[in-house]
Amino acid sequence: MTTDTPARLLQLLSLLQTPREWPGGELAERLGVSRRTVRRDIDRLRELGYPVQATMGADGGYRLVAGKAMPPLVLDDEEAVAIAVGLRAGAGHAIEGVDEASVRALAKLEQVLPARLRHRVATLQAATTPLTSGDGASVAPETLTVMASAVAGRERLRFAYRAGDGTGTRRVTEPYRLVSTGRRWYLVAYDLDRADWRTFRVDRVSEPFATGARFAPRELPTGSAAEYLRRSVYQRHQETYTLGVTFAAPAEAVAGRLPAWFGAPEPLDGGRCRLRAPLGDQVEWVAMRLATLGCDFTVHEPAELVRCVRELGARLSRAAAGGDGERGGGGDDRSGRGGGGSDGGVGAVEGNGPA
Hints:
This protein is of the alpha+beta class. It has 3 domains: 5-64, Orthogonal Bundle (Arc Repressor Mutant, subunit A); 82-225, no CATH class; 242-349, no CATH class. Helices cover 39% and strands 21% of the residues. It has helices spanning 5-16, 24-31, 35-47, 77-91, 99-112, 115-126, 141-153, 225-237, 251-255, 283-291, 303-328; strands spanning 22-23, 52-55, 61-64, 155-162, 168-180, 185-191, 196-201, 205-214, 242-247, 266-267, 273-278, 297-301, 348-349. Strands 7-6-5-4-8 form a 5-stranded antiparallel beta sheet. Helix 11 (303-328) links the parallel strand 12 and strand 13. It is globular, with a radius of gyration of 27 Å. The relative contact order is 0.06.
């Protein structure tokens, strides 16, 4: 019999979070208490915000249902390990839409995970190898969780950093926010040694350590960490690559399909929009990303992207023509899908790009 009321409530909550209906008698037997005590405990859970639904009948049943808010969950050892392994597997590879939430959840879970379960999680992680696309830089989940905890706790963060040219430095920072571009993780932080804001690629960070020294967050030069990262990347690459594209779709629709670091498209008349953004050196990746947006577009610059889109369109047209030949013997394609026209191409190109 569980005489400690808080412990009994947690045990009851754990049972109710199993997706089934629990007869009152079975709950009383599991907890070693009377049915009357079960009813009182159910009322206490409702007062705490847990939506427990009662059903009528000889034995009366209880079920935890969906409410308006997300209540705290009680996990057993196996469930905690399974969730931690899943979050760690995904944390090292930025996934648009859920990436930052995944890291926050992982940091919260690992903060309270017992040492014996941490060992199990680490063992499972070491024994598995994810099959990835290889187009993004991988990040150690431990690095992300240390950084996320430092951001949430407003603790100064110390780490080793390797620049693009291979130069290694030691940094002491006030971490502001982790930002994912869909392919890479970045840390936006105030660098104490350089007395200025900086962005750091997380895949180039090693030995992160939260010092325990608290700080009051400084005000960013821009409205958000994502906007600061976008401007930082733009300033770094604008002399080499500037992306200029016009889309045959409204700005709101295009913005919802592009990574945040591209920035917001500018609305134009006729339901079109225009985008200017930093490009860096990922020309092929940007060409493929544009091709999968689901709308027509025209590339104005840079010349490298114009050439890449033209080559990609020709390659896809040849692939489509080859498929038609296998099915129908290579007859005329009256639909225009295999002829490289504007209806079937990846996108239109203009400017002085190479042929």
